[in-house]
Amino acid sequence: MDYYDPAAGAFxxxxxxxxxxxxxxxxxxxxxxxxxxxxxxxxQKADGxxxxxxxxxxxxxxxxxxxxxxxxxxxxxxSSAIVSGLNYLESAQNEDGxxxxxxVSPWGTDSDTNxxxxxxxxxxxxxxxxxxxxxxxxxxxPIKFLRGMQLSDGSFEWQKGFGASQIATxxxxxxLLFRPLPVKVADxxxxxxxxxxxxxxxxxxxxxxxxxxxxPILNVTVWAQGAGDLYYGTxxxxxGSYTISVPAAxxxxxxxxxxxxxxSPTVRTVTVSGAPGDIHIVxxxxxxxxxxxxLVMRN
Length: 299
Description:
By secondary structure, this protein is α+β, with helices and mostly antiparallel strands. It contains seven helices and 14 strands.
């Protein structure tokens, strides 16, 4: 979610990146933002397909992944976006039952294992059966094409004559197992949160720190020791804020760490309580830079 721009609804500039991020979000049992779904739907082209890279032209891979991402996000399979995407894929199918990367590619339009596997997964996600007459051409279909791409050692090749391909094999296995993306959705486990901020501090005449300018300090690792293990969070936001996920209500010792800095307090003990999902807010850590003087040797 650090990549997500809620104003635009975008995880990235390219439709392929957007679709992958949506699939990944769904795989972690998280709700895909509605604006992200809308952004991907808006990226659909007039021919019903999606591009993998913006400006690269529609292709079967980008379209198949977009369909899986939309379905994973909750888009109905009867929506115009899904139906139009399936129509694009149908128009791209070759007579051998397989699919090319792009039916209008100047570099060739032969079917390949990777593209066909992607399409099979999209069909499954949309509730289609790749073995039916809809997806059969002459005497072949996408599944028959994939099985025909397997070599004697069990591997699959990308295209005929190219030899064994690890990526083609990995994609073919998922498709032949009839497993669309996400292949597995993680169980949602509720944890507790610790949230705080690391800010710039100044030094008084006595040498004790106090809150000074309050400017954020970034890239500070804050360690949380407790509940039988060590956890951490990093201040990466423009505000110098950090969050740490911990598994249980317990006492935790927080220790900020960044080379060249000292912090006040050096360690803070916090008690996390309440119900899973609760976030415990911690007071600011104050930090200041340390200047190390060179060692001077004297006779």
